[in-house]
Each structure stands twice: as structure tokens, then as C-alpha cells.
Amino acid sequence: MDDENKMRNKKIKVGIIYFSIIVIVLLLVNYGMNSARNQSVAYSQFKELVRDGRVEQVQMSADGSIAFLVENDNFTTYNTVATENLTTITAYLEEYNVPVYNGYIAQTNIWLTLLLQLGVPVLLGILWHFISKSMSRGMGDAMSFGKNNAKIYAENETGIKFADVAGEDEAKESLEEIVDLLHNPQKYAAIGAKLPKGALLVGPPGTGKTMLAKAVAGEAQVPFFSMSGSEFVQMFVGMGAARVRDLFKQAQEKAPCIIFIDEIDAIGKSRENSLSTNDEREQTLNQLLTEMDGFDASKGVVILGATNRPEILDPALLRPGRFDRRVNVEIPDYLGRLAILEVHAKKVRMSSNVNLAAIAKTTPGASGADLANIINEGALLAVRKGRNAVEQWDLEEALEVVIAGKVKKDRVLSPKEKQAVSYHEVGHAFLAHVLPYANEVHKITIIPRTKGALGYTMQLPGEEKYLVTREEMEDEIAVALGGRAAEEVMLGQVSSGASNDIERATETARRMVTMYGMTDRFDMVGLESPSGTYLDGRPVRKCSEATEKAIDDEILMIIKKQHERALKILLENREKVNEVAQYLLEKETITGDEFKKILAEGV
Ligand code: ADP
Predict the structure, then answer these.
(1) Rounded to whole angstroms, how far apart are CA atoms 232 and 145?
(2) Percent of the chain at pLDDT above 90?
(3) Is 425 close to ligand 1, i.e. is its CB under 6 Å away?
(4) In whole angstroms, what is the distance from residue 291 CA to residue 150 CA?
(5) Is the backbone peptide bond immediately before 256 cis, with ω within 30 degrees of 0?
(6) Residue 40: phi, psi to the nearest 5?
């Protein structure tokens, strides 16, 4: 509503400006016409003109006012007032053969009249044209939709091939059939197989969904129409639907081709469970459904949609005959990550000592976009350091920049704070080292980073994991609480540095209780469910308030138990922890191997 009001105000303002311009123009024209037609001159000047033979017609009134025309001046009627009596003037005029008329004389120039009579309406017409044009511009994109808009997004050749998309083999396999279909639709038609109209690419952000869609178009060598779902949803009801119509019309003209709709959830949101109605979105969705039903897939128009929120899509979109294929695009595993790093590494100059496998190992959970970013950050770092190729060191640093932020050079910690951070980090690392199910320590550092960390301990899973056991989760909590525990044991004080650890530990404990059925008290009752498959939304609670309280008690028990466990282990190993912490204080960063060596052999 607010937007509509703004728009109306804008319209009124533009209207007022143009109205004022028209009035000013009319006044000027009028003034010009009057001043061009009448001009007063001195009587002596009139006489001079008569003497020179330049006066053509004269008309005199009894009061002595004289109007006259001058030769070669088609636009002006001259006026003067006589200072002599009429007889003298008449004699003077007769002497020079100037005719005298009775009645009104005025310059009646046909061209001038025509010009004014036609010119003004034409001028008004032109002005009106500009007014309406600028008003529609003022009203934003909403009115400027049109035939050409979708064309902007059409690419004739995406230039991307499946080979450019690393990993994601299952996704590629499902999409290969679509490529084949675009190449030879008649092969499918001959056997009577119904062609799939669309496929939905589903996966977390940055996993290469857009890239895969482009690769399908690139492999099939067909045009690629691309639009984002949010672009369809316009301010005015009916605009989005018009865009959908337009897009399909153009696509059909260019068939075979691919239509790619990114963020399809923006229009395809389920209409159930929605408290507010959104007419515009519904109309757009309906139009999309109608278009999908209406076109003939044998012509070779394939629609690819992408979303990271498949659970909120309207079932109507997913039924057979629409997006009847679902292609999962997942976060890459180790081999996928390595392949993605290799693909992107090809585009930058890499030194021969670079070990991409090591980077792939240290980045579980990273998406393709993250990995591409790491390589690019590495290349930028190399340039900043004046190197002519990317070294392993640049990539390691880039990885940390992506994970933990840039080194904060101006953040100077007091020696006391630094010591606390050092104990804190060694606390994490030590527990990670001794607990049987914790991930291995890869690196410990006490260099502050921009993302708020004063230091951190990087752990790495030994192998790719898909299941997490209760023991692993308990160890994870103990390691997270180990930082604070070390401060307590070594310094006898606590600090605010553990807030992030506390958050993570509590979250893990909560999941153990509410989602994974890992407590005796609640057995296998599901008390919460995740709100989105791929995005970290708040879980949805599915229990009574009384149970919620009991959940809190259970979480407290888990946290307390692990905190005590961490304290006990660190207390028993005070000397070792101290030794490593002093070493870390001096070095600021130590690798996992160094750390293990110190624990085994001493400094
Ligand atoms: P999405 O559409 O899933 O959000 P994109 O396709 O836009 O992700 O990917 C973003 C960027 O990440 C790409 O431009 C590419 O550089 C990189 N990327 C993602 N996945 C891959 C992959 N499997 N292979 C190569 N590059 C990838």
C-alpha cells in the first residue's frame, strides 16, 4: 500500500510539473504573438518611413492614432500617435503616395496564423507524449514490462558445458536425457514417449544449479532464457502473469530452447497454509501452470527451475506434466570438492607445489561457490603479495579468510587476554586430541580475525561422514566447552570468549534431545522438526509448554555432564596444557602435526 501511495504522489508531482510547463509555453506563445504583431514607434520615425517609401498602408483615427504596415515586414502592425493635425498628415501621405484606409488594419499573415493554429496543438501533443512516458517511467518497472523485457535475458550460447560443472554426477546424468531430447525430439516422439516438460533443480545455495541449467543449454546448443522468480512478482496484479506469457511466447518462437526460472519458490509458494493472500503471486503462478500445460513439449521447450526450499512449493507445480523431474544438487563430498577446486584452479596460474587435495580435505560442507571463492581469494592474495603464481600458502590463507574472516591487524590484545585466548584454544585442541570420537586437530591460532574470533582451533573429520553417533555428539560438546573449561582450570576465571562455543554446544544438545531421540526420557519422540531442508531456519517446536521445560532440563543435564568431563580431563593434564599454551603464545599459530608432536615429545 505504501508503495502505491508513493507512486500516486510521484504521479501527481510529475503532472504538476508538466502542467506548469504547458502554461508557461502557452503564455510565451501568446506573448510572442502579441509582441510580434504590434509595435509602437515615434511619430518622427513614422514620417521617416513614409519619406523612405517604406510604408504600405495607413489607417488613421480621429484621435490621431495611426496604424500602418511596413514593406518587407509581414509580421508587424505598427502604431504611432500623430503630433500634427489630420490635414497635415493627409497631405504628407499624399505627397509620398501612401494609401490611407478606413477601418481596422492588421497584419494577416497566413503562414503565421497557420503556424500558430497548428503548432500549438502539435506542441501540446508532443508534451503529452513525454508526460505519459515519464509517468510510466516514474511508476517503475511495473509499467515498463513488455515484449522486449524477457529478451534481455536470452542467451544464444551459454558457452558452459557439463565438463565445466565438476562433481554432481547424478545431477548431470539426469540432465543428459534432457540434452538428448533437445537434440532429437523426434526419437522420443516416434516411440510415443511423453517428453518431460520441466525439471526442478533442488539444492542448497551455491551448489551450481544455475551453472547446470546453463550447461544443459550449452550442451544442447540452444538458447537459454533465464529469469528469477522474484522478477515475475510485480507490484500490480497481472503484470507478473503478463511477463510469464511473454517469456513463453518468445521461448516458443525460439524453440528448441531452455527456460530457466531461478528461485522458483518466489512464485511457486504453496497456497495452502498461507494466512495472507497474494493475488499477484497467485495469478503469476496460475499463468505459469497454464503455460506449462499449454505448450507442446515436442517442440523442444524445456523448463528448468531452481530452488533451495522445495518443501514450500505448491504441489500443483510438482505434479506430472509440469516439473515432473527432480534433480538433487547436493553439497559436494571430498571428491566433488577436489574436482571443483581443479576446475577453478585451471583458470588461475598455480604454482606446482599447490596441493588441492589438502584444501579439499579441510573444507567439508563447503559449496561449489565457496570453493570457487577460495581459489579466487587465493589468486587475489598472490597478486597482493606480488607473486606471479598462487602458492599453497595463499590458498590456506584464503580458506581461513572464507571461514574465519581476514586477519585483524589493528586488534591488539593485552598479554593477559592473549594468555586467556591461548589457554582457551589449547583447551579445545587438547580435548579434541584425547576424546575418542572428536575430530582431529588441524590448526590452532590465536591471531584475531574480522569475523569476531580472537583465535580458533580448526578440526577436520578423518573421513566424510553422513551419520553422527551419540558419542560423537557428546565429544563435540565437550570439545566446544573445553575452551572455557581450560580458562577455569588454568586461570581460575571465566571470560566472555566462550559465547559462540556455548551456542554451538547448546544447539547440538538440543538436537540430541528433540530430533535425534538420544535421551531416555523422551525416547524416540520427535519434539522439533527442521523448518527447511537446505537453509538453516529455526526448527519448529512440536510439543507442549510443559515438555519444553523438560527439554530444557535434559539439555542442561547433557551440557553439565560434558562440562564436568572437560574440566576433569584438563585438570588431570594441567602441565601438558600449560606447555602447549605457552608454545602457542609464542608462535601464535601451530599446525595439527606440531601440536601432536609437542604432546608426544614435549616442546
Ligand atoms: P546456485 O544456482 O546453486 O546458487 P550457481 O550455479 O550460481 O549456484 O553457482 C555459483 C558459482 O559457484 C558458479 O558460478 C561456479 O563458479 C561455482 N560452482 C558451484 N558449483 C560448481 C561446480 N559443481 N563446479 C564448478 N563450479 C561450481
Answers:
(1) 10
(2) 27
(3) no
(4) 15
(5) yes
(6) -90, 140
Cα angle, residue 444 at apex, residues 442 and 446 outer, rounded to 5°: 160
| Angstrom distance (rounded) from CA 108 to CA 190 | 82
**Distance set, CA 443 to CA 16, 458, 488, 592 (Å):** 68, 5, 23, 5
Residue 308 near residue 316 (C-beta atoms within 8 A): no
What local confidence, expressed as pLDDT, does residue 552 receive?
A: 95
Contacts 24+ apart (CB under 8 A), 497-502: 497/420, 497/421, 497/424, 497/454, 498/424, 500/452, 500/453, 501/428
> CA–CA distance from 323 to each of 198, 213, 316, 525 (Å)?
4, 14, 9, 35
Residue 149 pLDDT:
46
DSSP H helices in 271-353: 279-294, 315-318, 334-345
Distance CA 80, CA 576 (A): 117
Span 23-30, average pLDDT: 70
Separation CA 598–CA 385 (nearest Å): 32
Phi, psi of 18 (to 5 degrees): -70, -35
Beta bridge partners of 322: none
Length of the chain: 603
Whether 330 is catalytic is no
Ligand 1 proximity of 178 Cβ (cutoff 6 Å): no
Catalytic residue among 168, 263, 280, 425: 425
What is the position in ligand 1's atom list of the atom closest to the CA of 343? Answer: 25
Residue of higher predicted confidence among 151 and 63: 63
Q: What is the pTM of this model?
A: 0.66
The three-state secondary structure class of 69 is strand
For ligand 1, say whether the CB of 205 is within 6 Å of any of its atoms: yes
If you measure from the C-alpha of residue 368 to the centroid of ligand 1, how many angstroms do you get, rounded to a whole number?
5
As a whole number of angstroms, the distance between CA 305 and CA 265 comes to 9
